[in-house]
Amino acid sequence: MKESEILIVGAGPSGLVLALWLHACGVTPRIVDAAPGPGTTSRALAVQARTLELYRQLDLAQPVVDAGHPIEFFNLWAEGEHRARIPLGAIGAGLTPYPFFFIYPQDRHERLLVDRLAAAGIEVERNVSLTGFQDRGGHVEATLVDARGAEERCAARWLVGCDGARSKVREIMDVGFPGGTYRQVFYVADIEGDSPALNGELNLDLDESDLLAVFATAPKGRGRLVGTVREDRAEHADQLQFSDVSQRAIDNLMISVRMVNWFSTYRVHHRVADHFRRGRAFLVGDAGHIHSPAGGQGMNTGIGDAINLAWKLAAVAKGQAPEELLDSYEAERLPFARRLVHTTDRAFSFLTADGPVAEIVRTGVVPRIMPLVAKLPGAREFLFRTISQTLVHYRTAPLNGGSAGKVHGGDRLPWIQKDGGDNFAPLPEPGWQVHVYGQARPDIVTWCALHGVTLRQFEWNAACAAAGLAEHAVYLLRPDTYVGLAAGSPSIEVMDDYLRANALRL
Predict the structure, then answer these.
(1) Is pTM beyond 0.85 here?
(2) What distance in Å separates the CA atoms of residue 363 and residue 128, rounded to the nearest whole number?
(3) What is the phi/psi pair of residue 407, to 5°?
(4) Fold of the domain built from segment(s) 72-88+178-272+353-392
(5) Over 194-248, what HEC string results?
(6) Which residue, of 23, 287, 331, 382, is most buried by count of CB atoms within 10 Å of its CB?
(7) Cα separation, 373 vs 375, whole angstroms
(8) Cα 450 to chain centroid, rounded
(9) Which region, left, alpha or beta, applies to residue 53 given φ > 0 means left and ψ of -120 to 50 means alpha?
(10) DSSP percent split of the chain into helix, strand, coil, nearest 5
């Protein structure tokens, strides 16, 4: 029976990132996927700033930025008229090294991740499906079947389902997936053509009956259309062609389509699994939560799941933490998934609401108010922080504690730009680190040396204070760069108490 530390089922972005992060932490996983190869369609487009910050830990951020496309402007259309052009640009300037909204199609994204895995000596086993598994207490025994029907029994200490909304892993775990399905049928099409809306920017048409968003996938002439299917054709959505979609919004944006490279219809669901862990099996990404595409959150949330789980699995596998650490994965990611689904549900319901009042608000009020609101610095910052996922925190989870300044255990550390660099510079490999903004006490220096933890000291200045940091405080960062412990009055005793409470051996 073939054995591995961790068996990953599913090689979409979440599964691939999980495998890459595990490898960076010193654990080699096995990863299988039922598909014959990586995706060839640009299903997810947006790569958020927090994802890029985490990618930077694996030297992945710059290749994505170099190959992607920032969105500089957001255009609002209503009933065939261009109503507003809202500048976005570096909307998150001063908050992150990646202060923009960014497009990098999923097909290219997956190829990059697969290539990085291959360079690390890890190949995705294609045409391999999971048909069942049993949790034996100390390990999982799984049954895999290849394209020829050959069956294999294998063992792993843990199994992770990254196998999407129809997850076989979730089904075998017998975990509920409550939620619902919106009544509208939507389409997605990657096209080439001519239009004022194929201008390298984000365009949204708010019609009284139709909805159409145009996401640029190139500076000009190419984009993704996301819109509604005509109600009289929705009953047989799986048989539709591009000619069957609602034409009114396309005409409103004066889109002349030369080529349709990909077309698909779908219904939008909003569901969150009851649990992300059961014994030695875990759910990551769409296997655990699905929601509307509003805000470009889905793939980024799955990647966040993967990184959160990866460093914890690696720590337990290497004997640096007890298995109880793995409970913190669900404690941190499940509440966030529920909040996210609630938020995207509200936004999506507003965009697709019926009735005369909803139509007046959507086509009349919003195009007039949004450009004014978008000029307010506070509104722009809140919008960016929310969509970029830099607001995500784990303050209430048991793994995190303390506070120093305005920063609490479980927070994303504030970004501070320094001469020639910043405080987010990655370690050679993901690991724990201590940040001090000011001067570290001698006993903290000794503690870090004793535990093999990198100590980084930054000169205190006004930017540190403005970001909410406390002078001379200790911020113990987890491998995913969230704050595990914030100590305004640091001491060896405080640091040791944190390790003891969580049974960590750094």
Answers:
(1) yes
(2) 48
(3) -100, 130
(4) D-Amino Acid Oxidase; Chain A, domain 2 (3.30.9)
(5) ECCCCCCCEEEEECCCCEEEEEECCCCCEEEEEEEECHHHHHHHHHCCHHHECCH
(6) 287
(7) 5
(8) 35
(9) alpha
(10) 35, 30, 35
Per CATH, the architecture of 401-502 is what? Answer: 3-Layer(aba) Sandwich (3.40)
In tens, the pLDDT along 337-379 reads 999 988 888 777 777 776 777 677 777 788 888 888 888 999 9
For tokens 């999407």, the residue is: 164
Question: Taking the CB of residue 473, how many other CB atoms lie within 10 A of it?
Answer: 21
Band (237; pLDDT cuts 50, 70, 90) = low
Of 243, 254, 245, the closest CA to residue 75 belongs to 254
Q: Cα separation of 37 and 1, whole Å?
A: 26
Beta-ladder partners of 188: 226, 264
Give the count of beta carbons closer than 10 Å to the beta carbon of residue 393: 18
**Average pLDDT of the chain, as a whole number:** 91
Q: Are 24 and 68 in contact (CB under 8 A)?
A: no
Q: Is the C-alpha dihedral spanning 47, 48, 49, 52 positive or negative?
A: negative
The answer to which of 49-53, 74-78, 388-392, 500-504 has the lowest mean pLDDT is 74-78
- How many C-beta neighbours within 10 Å does residue 468 have? 13
Report the Cα 270 to chain-centroid distance in Å.
16
pLDDT tens readout for residues 327-342: 999 999 999 999 998 8
Check if the beta carbon of residue 270 is closer than 8 Å to that of residue 325.
no
Fold of 2-68+104-176+275-343: FAD/NAD(P)-binding domain (3.50.50)
* Among candidate residues 277, 50, 252, the one with its CA nearest the CA of residue 161: 277
Structure tokens at 188: 């997605």
Q: Whole-angstrom Cα distance, residue 32 to residue 48? A: 27
Give the rounded distance of the alpha carbon of 337 from its chain centre: 11
Backbone torsions φ then ψ of 167, nearest 5 degrees: -50, 125
Stated length of the chain:
506
Structure tokens at 479: 């491998």
| High-pLDDT (> 70) share of the chain, % | 96
**Separate counts of helices (H) and strands (E) for the chain:** 14, 25
**Cα–Cα distance, 418 to 426 (Å, whole number):** 14
